[in-house]
Amino acid sequence: MKIGYNTWSMATVPYTVFVPELARMGFQSLAISVVPGYPIGGTYVQNAGDFTKWSASDRAHLKSLMVSHDLELASVVGNQPIIGDDQAKADIAMARLRDTIDLCVELTLPHQAVPALNTGSGGSPADFETHKHQLVDRLGELADHAAKRGVIVCIEPHVGAAIDTPERSEWLIHAVGSPHVALDFDVSHFEVVNLPLEAAVARLAPLSKSVEIKDQHCRYLDQPEPANWRVPGNGVGKAFGPDGHPIEYQFLLAGEGTFDLPRYLSLMDRAGWRGAIGFEASVQCQMRPGYDALAEAEKIFHWMDRAWTIAGVSRD
Predict the structure, then answer these.
(1) What is the pLDDT of residue 71?
(2) Residues contacting 121, CB < 8 A, separation 6+
(3) CA 1, CA 21: separation in Å to the nearest integer?
(4) What is the rounded CA–CA span in Å between residue 185 and residue 179?
(5) Average pLDDT in the 244-271 region?
(6) What is the mean predicted confidence (pLDDT) over 52-60?
(7) How far apart are the first and last CA of the chain?
(8) pTM of the predicted model, to two decimals?
(9) 23, 29, 234, 260: which has the fewest Cβ within 10 Å?
(10) CA proximity to 298, closest of 13, 1, 2, 5
(11) Pairing mode, if any, of strands 246-252 and 181-186?
(12) Closest CA to 26 of 43, 48, 4, 9
């Protein structure tokens, strides 16, 4: 299990900087975000890795840097909403995802597997019943294109999205029924609603071809807030636990929350996971005043490095 990093965590840092710097820190594998941009703290931030802004020489240079720094390219993050009733927007999103599938092939490094394409489902939990067949149909279209190109499309179950529970995640993978559709499993989205770690890993790791982590904590809103619980400047989200009780949560940086990374690594090892595990700093963290993506990445690596040592799992 290689120690990985997801560049969604550093929207403003170009590949010419993040590749050598992340390699220097000790990361072995990258998930590279190529989306146009996203809101951080209410402000839309352009992504320095927007692949439509890269020339052919940029793409070749990125590959050269990855090879020279002995990095694995585990996945390409192309997040686009798949659910939606605005057909014009859906057409744009689907076209972008097809283009990102093609990019995965173009960016494949020598002697490595083709990177996966990671995306979310879009929508909200309330959209699942009304839009689940739309989601299956559109994912099926993407799977057909991905099959021709040798790419696996990985859907991320996400708190607050249409695919937000283990049950819905399992249903989706079985409903699409394609070897070219799998999960992008980020256990933080289940940790923040108090779903037991063992259950999430046992059910979803076998369905996954891409894996990410965060640190995080949560609390029930019908109970008093613990002293010093809230990390200042960090975003906050709300959801409902499996028991229906309202929950407040924060996605956090390495070592700030309650995530037991060594235990998680042991569970993933027992579940048979042998791919990279990449840390993603949520936009909740990136909205902090003075957030320094590279400085935080260095701390993240040391936190992950210690956990790998404690768990005694392979880094191959």
Answers:
(1) 99
(2) 81, 82, 83, 135, 155, 156, 158, 161, 162, 163, 172
(3) 21
(4) 16
(5) 98
(6) 97
(7) 6
(8) 0.96
(9) 260
(10) 5
(11) unpaired
(12) 4
Structure tokens at 87: 């057909």
pLDDT for 179-202, tens place per residue?
Answer: 999 999 999 999 999 999 999 999
Q: What ranges make up the beta strands (E) of the chain?
A: 3-6, 29-33, 37-40, 43-46, 72-77, 116-120, 153-156, 181-186, 208-213, 215-220, 237-240, 246-252, 277-279
Q: What is the DSSP letter of 257?
A: S
Provide the residue ranges of all domains of the chain, joining segments of one domain with +.
3-311
Q: Which helix (H) or strand (E) holds 153?
A: strand 153-156
Q: Which residues pair with 72 in a beta bridge?
A: 29
List, in order, residues 6 or more apart from 152 with CB less than 8 Å away.
Answer: 114, 116, 117, 146, 179, 180, 181, 182, 209
In CATH, what class is 3-311? alpha beta
Give residue 86's identity as a one-letter amino acid code.
D
Name the 3-class secondary structure at 197: helix
Q: How many helices (H) and strands (E) does the chain have?
A: 10, 13
85 is written with which tokens?
């009733």
The token pair that represents 130 in the structure block: 């009304």
pLDDT confidence of 211, banded at 50, 70, 90?
Answer: very high
Task: Give the three-state DSSP class for 128.
Answer: helix
Q: Give the pair of three-digit tokens for residue 151.
A: 């790419």
pLDDT tens for each residue of 222-252: 999 999 999 999 999 999 999 999 999 999 9
Q: What are residue 84's DSSP bridge partners? A: none
Mean pLDDT of 7-14: 98
Based on C-alpha coordinates, what's the Rg of the chain? Answer: 18
